[in-house]
Description:
Blueprint: H1 9-14, H2 22-42, H3 58-61, H4 84-96, H5 100-105, E1 116-117, E2 124-126, H6 129-134, H7 136-156, H8 182-188, H9 197-217, H10 231-244, H11 258-261, E3 265-271, H12 275-278, H13 281-288, E4 295-301, E5 316-321, E6 324-329, H14 333-340, E7 348-352, H15 363-366, H16 369-375, E8 379-384, H17 387-399, E9 404-412, E10 420-422, E11 430-432, E12 436-442
Parallel strand pairs: 3-4, 3-7, 4-6, 7-8
Antiparallel strand pairs: 1-2, 5-6, 8-12, 9-12, 10-11
Helix pairs in contact: 9-13
Amino acid sequence: MASRLRPLAPMLRTLPRTAVGEARVSSTLASLAAARAASSARRSLSLKSFFTTRKPKSDTFTSQFEPVLEQADLFHPLSKSPLEPVRTKAEWIATHGTCPVCKELSPDEKSKPPKHECPDCGYPTHCSEEHYEMDQEHHKHVCGILREVNEDEHDLRSGRRMKEFEFPGAQHRDEAVNLSNWDTFLYTRGFLSMNSERSMRHVSHVLTYPLTIGSVLHQASPYQLGKDLTIEGLKSLAALRHTLHPAIISGITQSQDLRTTATHTVRIFCLGARAESHLPPHIYMQLAYLFPSTAFQIHFVGPDAIPPHTKSKESHQHVHYDQMTFVYDNSLYETYHAEAGPFNPYYDVFFLFSPGLAHPATKEMWKPTIPLLLDTKCAIFGTGFDEQDVMNDVNEIESAGYELDWLMKPRENAFRSLKHEVNMTDVRQSAQCNWGIWGIRGRRYDVRPSDQ
Ligand SMILES: [Zn+2]
Ligand SMILES: [Zn+2]
């Protein structure tokens, strides 16, 4: 794996939510809501979700997409942005950030706050123009990424009609999807207006969770035996695909409720869930469309597993949406495990999105969980922010001496977010959500489906 990014996962993980990406998440969700409204005007879609959208009348339709910013006007120094949330972000960085030159001159002292904004990327990067000039050799390597993030953020809040978020509905059963990479997936699934890298970054950022899951589990997976998958990996996935790709059952059509007609439900457990649980359910329908004969339960477990757009403080909530049921639970996984069992490798799979198994802040919390997961003999997949983050988790697993088999060697995730997330306490560092992926399973010697 080629490493292009500095390790920053620990920083991203421990920062308060206001520090990294929260503004971005809310602006992305607002854009999604607008696109959802546009989408419902364009064709009829199920709106069973609590993710409420007002159906715009055709004459008001265009007026809700009055752009605040034109496409040629997306770059602004953060402190002078016409958008208030962006100015707030600039203030936060200028207060809590780091001047890399100060840091280098006296590593043990807290640097002066980075008040000086780079004219090319618009970020507050150094304490003074003098330190900025001294650091050009280093800053030029991150300036381009920061500029891109700056413009993307203004674009998300520009008020333009975001056609790229108007996602396609179900596919025909005989339609083949190509999961080699983002391009082939978006093309074969008929996504609209995917004609710029910026659109690709926006869309990959919200679809990375469902597509990371889908691309591993699907029979058209880009991950192949020998190259990425071990023999044990192929066995585990073959078991799951046996359930996910059943022969067409006569009498069942897509219009019927698969939650009651499907012969089996596949359960996907997302543990330590954070951002992945805040996505609106219709985003996860892009996973369901890949498996038109399967009903899903997605269990988001962890203290930050909260359904989007809810005021409820219930620690356990269910949301039903077409062929999927979403379960949100804030209990510790040890407790949840006992309730959710028994587990079956043919129907159950675990995903740990950037878990931080080796990180000092989260390491101890994972210790009781991992043996329980291995004991189920179900497949377990994990992701990381960058190469270093992935390898920290992998080394932690290896050194713990568990009885396990590797299913997938750590590698770059074909469906990582293409968007960079900037570490606001040190803007030299950035990472991509679900950059890398790996897979393990508790060691076993023979598995048969429970009904044989
Ligand atoms: Zn300085
Ligand atoms: Zn710059």
